[in-house]
Fold:
Amino acid sequence: MERLIVDAEGKVTIPSEIIQKRGLHPGDELTLLETEYGLLVCRKGLAMLEEWWNSLTDEEKREARTEAEWYESLNEEQREAFWNQFPASIEEEDEGDEIDLSAVERPVR
Structure:
């Protein structure tokens, strides 16, 4: 999940890593869906969202609603704490996980 901030002009900036990951380009159309549980941004429009929602089991739908209701019940401070518990990026989370392959012994064939 990514955190977006609305600026003074009402604009939201999508993080560059998400733009690259999703292959977004200037002029691409996104759909903003307002639900009773919050806002959803979809690349391929409402039909794709409906397809995804309909693919969920009843239990998965209940879980999604419960999670959305829980999040909506949080105050701003609690939401801030929730978002700050995650690493700022995948790279930050994986920092130090590198392996120097030149130091790994390979079996002789």
About this structure: The beta strands are 31-35, 38-42. The mean pLDDT is 78. The first helix runs from residue 16 to 22.
